[in-house]
Amino acid sequence: MSRIRVAVIGAGPAGLCAARHLAADSAHFEFQVFEQAGEVGGTWCYTEFTETDEYGVPIHSSMYRNLKTNIPKEIMPFPDFPFHETETSFVHHTEVLKYLKGYAEHRDLYKHIRLRTVVNKVTPVPVDGGRTSWSVSIQDLETKKREELEFDAVMVCNGHYCAPYIPEIEGIDEFRGSIQHSKAYRSPEAFRNLRVVVLGAASSGADIGMELSEVAGEVYISHNLPEPLLYLPSNVKQVPGIKSASREGFTFHDDSTAEADALIYCTGYRFEFPFLTPECKVRTEGRRVMPLYKHLIHTELPSICFVGLPFKVLPFPLFHFQIQYFMRTLDGSIKLPSKEEMDEEADRDFQKRLALDMPPSCAHEMGSLQWDYFAELADCIGLKRLPPVVRMVYDFVADRRKEDLVHYKTESYTVLDHGHFENKHVSP
């Protein structure tokens, strides 16, 4: 039996994870990884560029200079490759890139990866027996050579921190201050002594707000979270979401106002797949990608998958389970339900979220739902589940973040066994 040919789009953490598991099963799979940047690592590759690189390709990374992880490295890694020793639990982004490159080197993955290679077009091609093959058009950015290759399956691992989501704000064109999305944020120096409104208080909004407080005159964190952020610096004020903008500043939903010199959108990202042709029949409605079974597999064209769409999740373990599940559907170890049954399950999952008062934009949000999702995928393919201590640390850190946003990253964690950990408080 001939091996299954797989195209992997992207060599960030998800693409590297795909390469690791495909390479480990060379009896069934052959593959190539296509990465448009000059190195592996995806969004963890820091660059001062914010728009396009030297080849005119859009910058993928949203990494800023001082970013540290908001998950301790003890629960962050792939389950089969522990993180290297570091002095702190919440590590600088350079340590994560070091980890990913070590993962690629340890598994000898570089020989499978084509760097500086952009995927321009992915098109399904019907073949005999009702199967689908995939035409993948690529271009080498250095030689400008174009190729059209054929594969049996496609793993889309292009990440989702690349296409900024910019909400509409009444009157924003009148605002005379500076405006940017967090994707273009690199360091706080440009905001010294300024009055800055940060729109959004999820991970990037909270982190950037805290970083700005060290140099800015005033920082307004504008959000609609049900609970306030606690123990903020004296020059940081929480305000509701933005109602409208004017020349001098902003009016918030409680009708309070603030004059401002700058606005930073920390409003997240859109899912974007510019290389997919209309024949791929992929739809996005806001932050929902359809039609997907288990947030992963195209229900009508099940030989293409989209790795890593779920958010508010441990990403590296997510990739570990998703990729191996998809591989087992390709080699026939797992028989997928009918298209109708998969669509029905996807709709039940969406309706469950709506019943939990989650808006449609949270179609792929996990949070506390991730543990059952991981367990389900693991059980389907006979993998070990994550040990209970992973969730224990994750939940503990989430509580500490709510309690003390300013200092929670100064604490360190030690996993003692599958059910116990230690938390070391460090005096600020």
UniProtKB/TrEMBL annotation:
Pfam families: FMO-like (PF00743). It comes from the Eukaryota. Keywords: FAD, Flavoprotein, Monooxygenase, NADP, Oxidoreductase. Gene3D superfamilies: FAD/NAD(P)-binding domain. GO terms for molecular function: flavin adenine dinucleotide binding; N,N-dimethylaniline monooxygenase activity; NADP binding. Its EC number is 1.-.-.-. Its cofactor is FAD. The keyword Flavoprotein applies. InterPro entries: FAD/NAD-bd_sf, Flavin_mOase, Flavin_mOase-like, FMO-like. Belongs to the FMO family. PANTHER family: DIMETHYLANILINE MONOOXYGENASE (PTHR23023). This is Flavin-containing monooxygenase. It comes from Zootermopsis nevadensis. The lineage of its organism: Eukaryota, Metazoa, Ecdysozoa, Arthropoda, Hexapoda.
